[in-house]
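Annual report, structural modelling task.

Input specification for the pyridoxal-5'-phosphate complex:
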Amino acid sequence: MNDSKYIYLDNAATTPMDPRVIEEINKHFKETYGNSSSLHSVGQKAGQVLLKSREIIASLINAKRDDIFFTSSGTEADNIAIFGVISKNKEKGNHIITTSIEHHAVENPYKELEKRGFKLTFLPVDKYGLIEIKDLEKAITKKTLLISIMFANNEIGTIEPIKEIGAIAKKHDLIFHTDAVQAFGKIPIDVDDMNIDLLSASAHKLYGPKGVGMLYIRNKGVRDGWGKFIEPIMYGGGHERDMRPSTVNVPGIAGFAKAVELAKEEMEGESQQQMKLRDRIIKWVTENIEDSYLNGHPTRRLPNNVNLGFKYIEGESIVLDLDMEGIATSTGSACSSKSLDPSHVLLAIGLKHEEAHGSLRVSIGRFTSEEDVEYFLEKLPGVIERLRKISPLKKEIK
Ligand SMILES: *Cc1c(COP(=O)(O)O)cnc(C)c1O
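The model returned the following structure:
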């Protein structure tokens, strides 16, 4: 791992921290140790850091400062959004609309709710991973209380039509939650323009610390026609205005804010640079490696995401062999890559089981250079060729 040459191309699983974020966190570890709920000046100082951080993070998505609620992760933000809304709106209905390609942090809460008697619609997606607006509209019933659709997919990078979805939610007076963990800080988000009521984000996907996330809650949960539309799922001290009690991770949050500040400054140039590297990989691989193809949308995808399919071999083997060459990649979702089930996302875009097993996610980051990409492209063909030579599938299929 500390070899002179180790190339990290798994930034969708998590990112290394930006050194400027580390510096900021270290400063706060030393200086801002107070509990933001304390009355004394050390606590008040922590409170000030929280306010400032909220303001910076809100400004990235055109939100109001007080609508940002800090959590311990993206997963926790998703769970508060989901269980908080259904718990508050039990009388309104029991139907939720989501997609068949959500991250496990959303998919698994909904599977659990299905067991508890809720009615779930998992919208299908097309071969690119996009939902159809007309399917969404058709799915809405009198009992629908929540629409929950991810901003951009973590495996294939597809960006959903969030503004159109928000418009439908508004038209039908429904609450709209989006898991924006992958999109946040990478592509522009405007919660007002897109009519988003709830948005989850996580610091470690944008060069911030692990274990820090946030949930945006429109007007702190009060919306026209809705009164209070969400309630807490944990009860304790009064932190985060009771929405997420537990002593607040002030240094981590200050690091999150620093990461957001950097993302804001660098988003445009960075995404241009990443798209160039992304498209270089896609073009080179699909043109030069036989029986390879792109998963997801050719253009409507995150600037840093590449997802490639290689026939006759398994993604896991490619990842392990690339690791031996000093390159970190993934088969898709870091959370499911230890199980043998094929990715639900790749099955949802219509891949066959054996195809879904042969996928490789390459996610570029802030610290990826052109040389890194060229090194990867130099090593990849040998790995694919070696694995295909020993693949039993190749003979069976051909
Ligand atoms: C990583 C990720 C999460 C989970 O965030 P954590 O902070 O790791 O809990 C949720 N949704 C998506 C789309 C993700 O990529």
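The two ends are 38 Å apart (CA to CA).
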